[in-house]
Structure of DUF4397 domain-containing protein:
Amino acid sequence: MKNTLFFLLVCISCLCCFSCKKNSDSEPQGVTIRVKNVSPYQFESVYVNTSGGENNYGALASGQSTPYLGGYKLAYDYAYIKVVINGEELVLQPIDYVGETPIKKGSCTYVIGVTDLGRKELSLQFTQP
């Protein structure tokens, strides 16, 4: 009887151990990106496409940052970025990512400025915490 009870407890313990999954909710999956507006202009909308994911960040006031958004499988230190100011689209268009090392996991910030509003020129600085 003691052996049967002991065997049953061991089996239940093993089942519990093998059926449990590691809780990875606290660990970020992929890349999370936030956008910071360092221009003197209000961004009516901000769109980012890293070729490993995309997000619409919405409106962003001068000097403000968005929350980190996920959904990026990978990112680079630059990306396709479209900002709307006063109804005008300003686009930063990468040519390609040949030779670049992708970021596959972690958080980063794209710091976006406007170098020339008349020419619709954006600047981008990449930072990681």
